[in-house]
Amino acid sequence: MKKILLGALLLMGSLANAQDLKTVLLDEDYAVDFIGLDFSKTKFVGNSDDFNDATEIKIVYLKNWNNLFVKEADKYNMADFLRKENVYVDIDAVKNVNKSVVEEEMITMEAPEPFTKEQLQEMTKRYDLQPKNEVSVVFIVNAFNKYEKESVIHVVHFKSATGEILRETLLRGDAGGFGFRNYWAGSYFNIMEQLKKKQYKAWKKEFKN
User: Any signal peptide, and if so, which residues (predicted)?
Assistant: First the structure.
């Protein structure tokens, strides 16, 4: 009986830590999962010369952009950019939801509005995860905007078990690089750099007291 009670107390304590936003965002020893780039509702803003093959983008590039977190893990090191000792990377869930992209709806000449909290919550609850940690992080891509030469991405921290959002941070990253893949990869790499520096400082200031 004592063992059961102790286990329950430990679980409650662990869950309490997961809900402690300061711990989630700032504690280097608090491990999280990173699940990649969710393109399921992304708009590619530009003309036909900028994005001339929606099918290729869906079949080839959505995978390639996510694969960089695995195949080029030294550069796209989420533990480094999130300032964590340990980040477990598993991009399978977003690869599955990215299959739902409707090619005819991907490309537009008008920039979309950022996603609402309700829209983001709907997305995070769709993920079929095999989590290693209580909290996961996902980059939900709102737009790749060629006119503005930037990506617009919601960085979302959420509870792995339920999808409940703990923190959503909207960031914009400057695009740049040689070739189509690297040009847009440069935009979310810029966002990763913001997380490590400017955004981390903002979070520290927020939780200073």
Answer: 1-18
Domain range annotation of the chain: 31-206
Q: How far apart are CA 191 and CA 174, in angstroms?
A: 8
DSSP 2: H
Bridge pairing between strands 87-89 and 32-38? parallel
For 24-35, the pLDDT digits (tens) are: 999 999 999 999
SS3 170: strand
Strand duo 135-145 + 32-38: pairing: parallel
Distances (CA, A) of 206 to 81, 117, 196: 19, 20, 15
Element (H, E) at 87: strand 87-89
pTM listed for this prediction: 0.90
User: First CA to last CA across the chain, in angstroms?
Assistant: 40
